[in-house]
Design goal:
Blueprint lengths: L1 E7 L4 E5 L4 E6 L3 E5 L3 E5 L3 E5 L5 E7 L1 E8 L7 H5 L10 E4 L2 H9 L14 H20 L2 E2 L3 E2 L4 H12 L7 H7 L4 H12 L3 H18 L4 H7 L5 H12 L3 H4 L20
Antiparallel strand pairs: 1-8, 2-7, 3-6, 3-8, 4-5, 4-7, 5-11, 6-9, 9-10
Length: 274
Amino acid sequence: MRGKAHLMRADTEVVPHAHAWGQLTFSATGVLRLGTPHSTYIVPPTRAVWVPPGVEHTVTVLEDADMRTVYVYAPEGTAGIAAAAGRDAEWQHCRVLEVSPLLRALVLELDTTPDDQAPPQPDPDEARRQQHLGALLLDELRRARPVRLGVDLPTDKRLRALCAAVLEDPTRHESLDAWAQDVGASVRTVARLFRQELGTTFVQWRQQVLLAKALSMAARKVPMSHIAAELGYASASAFSAMVRRSVGAPPSRFFGQADIRPGPSETQDELSPS
């Protein structure tokens, strides 16, 4: 296991890439968007995204961020965290996890010294400490609560264009008919494609987009009433009801009202474990 720290400016985009290591992506401060060919995820300081080995992904910085990545060595191509957890199938796919105070502290305590700045003779006590931190971090990862948050993306060109437009401006309140016209398809065709490719309806899919947008706003301490209004809800209570229906938890828990303090910033390094 090893950690990396990247101080990144808003609007920075990392080109598609993949690692032979499993990767936990976490933002100590700021908000990121992590995308794969099939899904996109919002990453505020209260959440982290697990990316298995070999999965191509991109990173977009939505606001200045202190991004931390934890790389887990995967012998013979298997995810190290999955092996530690009995190779559970869910670790073979991207997943969003709640970041507990302990998990946050462990990630921030990992050594992120770049290779070209590492001392030739590591301190034995610090090396043992890092080993203990890594073992505890793996255990805390196994215990982390998965969150039903992530926006699936289709392969059909028309539907993908529609989904990209919604993701670009989730506060645009249009009927499915209007969205369908924009991509030159009928409402019936678009509805069928949502069911076939994503296994959901447009309304349900868009709710996931709105939840991701709300999560990004909540990370900036925007009041819940303002979030509800921005996303087109008549009241905070109506928005709260949608959150409960979608994720089975009240907004106070889903958005994570913990006191998020900045972690110590490290120097920016290339986005790879080596």
